[in-house]
Design brief:
It is a single chain. This protein folds into 3 domains: 7-119, Acyl-CoA dehydrogenase/oxidase, N-terminal domain (Butyryl-Coa Dehydrogenase, subunit A, domain 1); 122-215, Butyryl-CoA Dehydrogenase, subunit A, domain 2 (Beta Barrel), CATH 2.40.110; 222-379, Butyryl-CoA Dehydrogenase, subunit A, domain 3 (Up-down Bundle). 51% of the residues lie in helices and 16% in strands. The chain has helices at residues 7-23, 26-33, 41-49, 67-81, 87-100, 103-115, 222-255, 267-294, 308-337, 348-361, 366-379, and strands at 120-123, 138-142, 145-155, 163-170, 173-179, 189-195, 201-215, 257-258, 261-262. Strands 1, 2, 3, 4, 5, 6 and 7 form a 7-stranded mixed β-sheet that branches. A two-stranded antiparallel sheet has the order 8-9. Strand 8 and strand 9 form a beta hairpin.
Length: 384
Amino acid sequence: MDFTLDDELEAVRELAGRIFADRAGTDRVRLVESTPTGIDEELWAELGRTGLLGIALPEEAGGAGLGLGALCVLLEEQGRAVAPVPLWPSAVAALALTRHGTAEQRESLLPGVADGSIRLTVALEEFGAADPAGPGCVAGRDGGTWRLTGVKAAVPSPFGAAGVLVSAMAETGPGLFLVVSDDIGAEGVAWDRVETTDHDRGGNLTLTGAPATAVGVPGGDALRWTLHRAAVALAAVQLGVVQGALRHAVTHLSARRQFGRPLATFQAVQHQLADCYIDIDAMRVCLWQAVAALGADIPENTDIPENTEEGAEAAVLVAKWWAGEAGLTVAHRVQHVHGGIGVDVEYPVHRHFLWARQISGTLGGPSADLARLGAVLASGTAEP
């Protein structure tokens, strides 16, 4: 299968790469990480002005209509620079609203997401070893609204977000629910601030009868659809993270000399970097296989095969496993070839390691991914 990017996606890559190179250098990232929010608001505004925040959203919502593939290109470039902006959670939440949200939800939120004036996030994880597709948070009917009760763990960049998409279990099955809350004192909503491995200012969310609106039909495919896009988005970020890490290694090894010659000329070092290159290439192929398997974001009223998402699930899990397992392996190797400098928390490559570690465990680690992949293959729902 040919995964060569077309002209539009190459243009997205070029624009995103230029912006991140100009505005997310090492000194700038270090400065932003020391701020209360940990988010580069100037970079976020620039991404909005250039249309990149809405790259995957439909044109009627103010986006470019380029879909999931364009989002992955953008996220890969972010990962290269480990730029501190909450792209993946906001973009995945917006895609979920595009596909499954009500007209009111789309009209009130999506244009703001596209221009950067509104941020969204997702609360898809809980404490313990629970599968994100089977949340423990409970959604119950209360007249014309929904009430959510439960605890969600490590919600990415929730402070300042206009809304949170929460996974919860209703009587009819798992679903997605929108909690509109940029106020930590909102009814039934309590936040505990946490700093995650990658220095994100996340939050643990406790819901006690918090009012919410459904996104899609509880018990339908909204949650699974969103989890698939979240997994692919994380794989795209991780691909960029390890490419950026490898670039640091190449630069370091080309300049550092031992026994009168560059470290890059030593065979043992070359073998390490060759293994990194192979792993990164496998990550890339599996990512784009998953994007292709998910296909275009087809409108609800379009006839599509009933097993589209089931058939794509295996490809998504393979991409996520490679991102978690191989991504973290590459980050470890890169630190190793840096020698003592690699363990310096102030050295740029350490930040790539932290991001790789955080992504590897998000939505379940590689072992959990393998278990889910085995279940999918055993059930016979995966396409040959």
